[in-house]
Amino acid sequence: MMKINFPYSPFLFLLLVLSINFQSCEQLASSSDSSESDTTTETETTSNTDDTKTPPSTGTDEMSVQEQLDYAASHVKELTFVNEKIVDIKNEHIHHKDQFTFECDKGKVDLERIYNDDNQIHLLSYHIHGEDGISTKHHYFWDNKLIYQFHHHEGAEGGKQVIDDHKTYFKEGKIIRCLEKKISYSKGEEHPNDLFVNATYEQVDCVPADKLTKNIEQLLAYSEEEAKDYFCN
Fold it and tell me: What span, in angstroms and rounded, lies between the C-alpha atoms of 177 and 68?
């Protein structure tokens, strides 16, 4: 029998397996981040995961790339569930929404809160467009729990213009996966949109969850005047 020597280390082999498993479910989530014109209809699915399992903790609520890989290898369904719910939220009927727009000294701010027919929050998003660049954040909720956050940013960094996207997956208040894609270009160069669109996401170390979720509860409850004071002052 012919013996085949696999030239890669076990760690690289695990990366290869995970990239294949997640390719299709990542495409589901990316459609909600990159295109508001997508009209794909998905059938709502339920999670078959064991809800008693919780993500590992390092004591600081951070997860390294290796910890994410270890967790993802045994929790594929949980991550797929989040991606499917992102699509469901986008296509679900909107019961009502709150929309606020403010003109601040630092730029224009658009805040939106979307609720489903059960009056549960499904999406909290805001967009800031100012002289220093633009920043957009989308927070997706299911059963009133944060399951996913998407952040797009364009601005100056270290003498370069930077474009970066961040995707963060949550389970029971803990971060279970963090992805990033980022490019930079010199000021004055043409906006490299095609280069950024074709860039790939990389798994990165997660930051503490409280840094990403700070003030979310306030933003869900603020009146228009309170929201304006939050963003403009």
Answer: 6
β-bridge mates for residue 129, sequence order: 108, 134
Positive/negative CA dihedral, 77, 19, 28, 56: positive
Neighbours of 79 (CB within 10 A): 23
DSSP state for residue 115 in the 8-state scheme: E
pLDDT at residue number 158: 84
Quickly tell me which residue has 């590992």 as its tokens.
56
Count of CB atoms situated within 10 Å of the CB of 101: 12
- Domain positions in the chain are 96-232
To which residue do tokens 């990033």 refer?
A: 180
- pLDDT means per 10 residues, the chain with 233 residues, are 44 41 46 38 31 42 67 72 92 91 93 93 95 93 95 91 94 90 87 87 90 93 95 91
So what's the pLDDT on residue 77?
80
pLDDT at 176: 87
Are 166 and 182 in contact by the 8 Å Cβ rule? The answer is no
| Residue 174 pLDDT | 87
Between CA 158 and CA 189 the distance in angstroms is 16
Question: What is the rounded CA–CA span in Å between residue 59 and residue 63?
Answer: 10
List the Cα angle 82/63/87 in 5-degree steps.
Answer: 15
Q: Is 24 helix (H, G, I), strand (E, B) or coil?
A: helix
Cβ-count burial of 200 within 10 angstroms (0-12 exposed, 13-18 middle, 19+ buried)? exposed
Residue 115 is encoded by which pair of tokens?
Answer: 């609720």
Joined together, the tokens standing for residue 122 give: 């499904």
